[in-house]
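pinning this so it doesn't scroll away 📌
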Amino acid sequence: MFRFIIPMLAAFLFVTGCTTPPASRAVVTGADPELLKLRGGPGLDYNVILGLPDGTAVIRRGCRTEVGELWCRVSLAAAPSMTGYVAARYLSDARP
C-alpha cells in the first residue's frame, strides 16, 4: 500500500507547486511625493519601466523576496499588458 501512497503524494505536491497563485487587485500607496517605480525585474538593479502615482490600480500576480525586500509582479489594471515589479510595501489591497 505504501508504494502507491508515495508516488501519489509526490504527484500532488508537484501539481500544487506548479500552480500560480490567484491574482489580486491592489492600489499603489505611500509613494508620494515620488512615483513608485515599475521595474523590469524584482530589484533595484532592474530598469525602470514607468512611474506609478499613488492611487494607481494594479493586479498583483505574485510576490517573492529578493535581497531582503518583497517584490510583487504586477500589471496595470487599466493596461493589463503593461507588467513589471514593484516593492510590496507600496501596495495595499484594493477595496471592491
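📌 and the second one:
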Amino acid sequence: MATATRIPIEQYLKSSYEPDAEFVRGQIEGRSGGEYDHNLVQWAILDWFRRHDKEWQTPSIQEQRTRLNSDTVRIPDVSVWARTVAIEPVFSHPQLIVVEVLSPEDRHSKVQEKVEDCRRFQVPHIWVIDPLQRMGWDCSNGNWMRASRFAVEGSAIHLDLEQLFRELDAAEA
C-alpha cells in the first residue's frame, strides 16, 4: 500500500503539476479528466457561462485553483464568481457556482468529498454533470437532486443541460 507524503501548502502553491493536482488535507491528489467527453462537456459549460458573463456579471473560468482553507486547495472543472470577487492567482473566496464534470473513473465517495468541501467553503451552488449519461445533480444542499436545469434563484443565471447537449450535438454533426 502506497503512503502519501504530506507537504506544506506553500510548497504546493509554488509547484506545478501536469495535469494540475489538488491539495487535500496536506496531500497531493491527482484529478480525473482528460477524456474527450469530459473535456468537451467541460468546455461547453464554460462556453455557456462565458457567453453570458457580461450580462450576468459573472466571470467564469475552468480549472482554477481555489484555496478552501489552510490545508486544502480544490480545482473545480468550472467556476463562476460574482463580479464583486477580486481576481487572485489562487482564489480564496467562494465561487457563486462550482460545476464538476464526472469522468468514468470518478468514485461517488471522492466526488461527495469535493461537494462537502465546497459546502464548507460556503459555495452556494454546486452542480455535478455526467457527460456520458447526459444528466446532472444539484448538490448545493448536500443531497444529490437530479436536475436538467440549474438556476441561481433571483437572477437570470442558469444552465440548461438539454439545450447544452443539443448545442453540442449540432456542433459535432
